[in-house]
Amino acid sequence: MWGRFPLQRVFWALQLVIVLVPGAFFHLYATCKSIKQEDILQKSFYSGFYMFSVFLRIVLETVAFWLQIQLFGFKVNAIYMCDVGALEKKFVSRCMVPEHLEKTIFLIAMYTFTVITVVLCVAEIFEISCRRLGFLKNQ
């Protein structure tokens, strides 16, 4: 029982860190090179590097989303069957999950945030592409 649910917290923390890494690398690079926002849109190397970091973020979010569904599903049940070992005897027992409703709500919130993040990243790639191709004017 205790092995599965603390894994959620570790997974979410790891997901947050991994998803933030591509953008952090780009912004660290841009800061070290003193790149301005206008340069990102005008120079193809910078915009390509930035779009790659956003695309990598989309891939990482999608993989994390898929892994979350595989590991946790969409609902945390109040009671589930678990293996309980007492000395050398193994038997199956019913285990209760504390705060299962809160964990289910948090799962749904994480799935919602992941979908919103992916949609915003796709919109960002679309906007940068349109600006590079001249369909949108830079302000």
From TrEMBL:
The keyword Transmembrane applies. It holds the Pfam family Connexin. It is found in: Cell membrane. Keywords: Cell membrane, Membrane, Transmembrane, Transmembrane helix. The chain crosses the membrane at residues 12-32, 44-67, 105-126. Residues 60-128 form the Connexin cysteine-rich domain. One of its GO terms (biological process) is cell-cell signaling. InterPro entries: Connexin, Connexin_CCC, Connexin_N, Connexin_N_sf. GO terms for cellular component: connexin complex. It is a multi-pass membrane protein. GO terms for molecular function: gap junction channel activity. This is Connexin cysteine-rich domain-containing protein. It comes from Limosa lapponica baueri.
